[in-house]
Amino acid sequence: VCIFFFSRVLECQGLPIVNGQCDPYATVTLAGPSRQVLHIQELPFYEDEAKKTKVKKKTNNPHFDEVFYFEVTRPSSYNKKSHFDIEDVDEVDKMEIRVDLWNASNLKFGDEFLGELRLPLKFLRQSSSYEAWYFLQPRDNGNKSLKPDDLGSLRLNVVYTEDHVFSSDYYSPLRDLLLKSADVEPVSASAAHILGEVCREKQEAAIPLVRLFLHYGRIVPFISAIANAEVKRTQKLFTSRDPNTIFRGNSLTSKCIDETMKLAGMHYLQVTLKPIIDEICQVHKPCEIDPVKLKDGENLENNRENLRQYVDRIFTVITKSGVSCPTVMCDIFFSLRESAAKRFQGDLDVRYTAVSSFIFLRFFAPAILSPNLFQLTPHHPDPQTSRTLTLISKTIQTLGSLSKSKSANFKESYMASFYDYFNEQKYADAVKNFLDLISSSGRKDHKSIEQPILLKEGFMIKRAQGRKRFGMKNFKKRWFRLTNHEFTYQKSKGDHPLCSIPIENILAVERLEEESFKMKNMFQVIQPERRVLYIQANNCVEAKDWIDILTKVSQCNKKRLTVYHPSAYLNGHWLCCKATADNTPGCTPCTGGLPANIQLDIDGDRETERIYSLFNLYMPKLEKMQEACGSKSVYDGPEEEEYSTFIIDDPKETYKTLKLIIEGVGTLEQEHAQYKRDKFKKTKYGSQEHPIGDKSFQTYIRQQSEISAHSI
């Protein structure tokens, strides 16, 4: 006698993504408490003894639709009974099907466990066929009893959020209120700033705000507004006006910039740091420079040289990566630089330190220190590699800080002596050139900075642009100079410019094919009315540098071209496409040059829903803030202690915004309540909307039962 059944694994939804990838598969097993009594075997025509589905690559919503067959028989060694008695049936009822979900991994640590579900046969025997959705559960320890002292203890804080997202029109009032935050005067009276005031942690507010503003292209104006406000408050609080005090705390400004860099700068980190980080993790060169921690057989000088080479290489790739810095980050750095320079005019270095405190201290240094947190490595590095990365991170952070007494930044004497390698002006100059580039490009209002920033200069050969109808279009050597305002050339360095091209007039910068003038290393700067400046650089490296930096500073120009001619217009036609009219549109798509704008997968409605949930959660604080506005409006004396935590620059404007927020949150709360009532009436337990294991559904049913019983 045998019991026969099959299990069909259909599909999964919303599996977790592990280290940036999800290649799931499922295993199906039949387990019971007494394997001596019952024998479990798979039918002979099913060859996969592991009972494992195929791996579904690159998806967290896999569709398997695979069937596994099982039978439960009595082994011949049991006895000669030909049927199951009551005891046998009890044993079968104690058995269960277990389905485990795994993420296939090629790493040495093995595949990652994603979750499991257990189905008792006793439950399944009540129906010949059963199909339902289930929530995956954590791994069972097999009912193994452990004493509390066996495993130690762990203190854990877990935050669980569950948001239902409506269609876009539901969020219009709240979303519009948030998006106009940058235009509110003062910005402390805006909805976005108020969210930062009422949330327990600034990070809570920063994450959905940044994603929402990025999605709607409003992140730069918003961060500019709150950064300006923070600088003003810093001036009021610190009479010494120390510029080192700005942007150093965990303010809403710093948290929003951190979050923006994480989202927009992930690709930037990949192309800049990942190749060297991978090498450091794989090669395992000894780099310990603390004499106390040296291992047997290691040489201190060799270790110092290994570390110096790593620092030099990482420093070089960072300071040469300005052209790859995402535009949105450049725009934010421009705002920080300008705001700090205006407020602290007596400090010439503040325009650099305001930017370096983010790009080095809060972006590159943490990514080097913990590459797994920035998706540069799949796992946390081993102890030796982690120590190497710590030493590199400390040095890079200090190099980027541009502080005057850098050796004093190190508590350890061995770090101070190691830093002597880098105590040269060329490192400071490289940092300043890098900061100049990433904080001066991509903005429409270039001339808002008092002094233009020199980005690059040098001799090149140019061909006459043909501004005169008659005359030779010959080649001449000229001194070229690029600032964040204009691109100019003159006869020699220091002379008056012979030609000036405003940055906003650069419509494209592309290579020029060698056949045009039989000259190598040429490129073209295309301007309005199809005027083209042809230039020859000294070598291919210089040509690429000029093309990259010119493209970088002009990439946000509204009238940038999408097509161009890769060859010149000579003898009455374009050499590339043979078109005869000199105003013929280009025949080749522009390269664009740089991966500066990375598309982000952001759902604006989801982020607005998250912000609504936060406002709803902190409603008591919103009401307390309303009271504080009323108190400030009526009474202008010393502030009550319970209101002192709020930043309220304009009580009347802040009160108006608070009123709109509370009204909008109340409306959405009513919609959610109605949705829940309708949803629970129409759906059943085990459907995709309410999988088995959905605690919220069980809680709701229990609450409704209690309400019904009470009313009866």
What is the CATH class designation of the domain at 242-439? Mainly Alpha
Helix content: 40-55%
Low-pLDDT stretches are: 34-49, 76-87, 593-597, 708-712
Mean pLDDT: 80
| Large-scale geometry | globular
- Within the largest sheet, what's the order of strands? 10-9-8-7-13-12-11
Query: Which percent range describes the beta-strand content?
Result: 5-15%
Distance between the termini: 51 Å
**Count, helices:** 21
**Most strands sheet:** 7 strands, antiparallel
Number of strands: 17
Radius of gyration: 33 Å
- CATH architecture verdict of the domain at 242-439: Orthogonal Bundle
Q: Looking at CATH, which topology of the domain at 242-439 would you report?
A: GTPase Activation - p120GAP, domain 1
Structural class: alpha+beta
Instruction: Assign the CATH superfamily of the domain at 242-439.
Output: GTPase Activation - p120gap, domain 1
GO biological process, one term: negative regulation of Ras protein signal transduction
GO molecular function: GTPase activator activity; zinc ion binding
InterPro entries: C2_dom, C2_domain_sf, PH-like_dom_sf, PH_domain, Ras_GTPase, RASA3_PH, RasGAP_CS, RasGAP_dom
Organism: Cathartes aura
Q: What features would you describe in this structure?
A:
This protein is an alpha+beta fold and 712 residues long. Among the domains are: 2-163, Sandwich (Immunoglobulin-like); 242-439, GTPase Activation - p120GAP, domain 1 (Orthogonal Bundle), CATH 1.10.506.10; 454-555 and 557-589, PH-domain like. The protein is 40% helix and 14% strand. The chain has a 7-stranded antiparallel beta sheet. A hairpin with an 8-residue loop joins strand 9 (486-490) and strand 10 (499-502). Helix 5 (191-198) runs antiparallel to helix 6. The protein is globular and about 95 Å long. The two termini are 51 Å apart.
